[in-house]
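Posting this for the archive.
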Amino acid sequence: MARRSGQSPKPERHGGWWTVRFWIDVPGQEARVRVRERICPVFGAGLFTRPEIERKAKEIIFRSGTDSPEYFAKV
């Protein structure tokens, strides 16, 4: 865990949506999986401002629990 200081990816546009990609450890495997989660649409109703998009991206990663030492120890 010493090399894993946390994830802070940039939100990106993908298929008409603002998305965030991050790594998740898979229990029982050495490799990790890259996950993409939607934040909001690029246009129209439900669009957030750029600071809100970045805040939501950090919140998604925090909610997933992938950066916590407890999750790493469990995996």
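The longest strand covers residues 32-41. Residues 12-74 form one domain.
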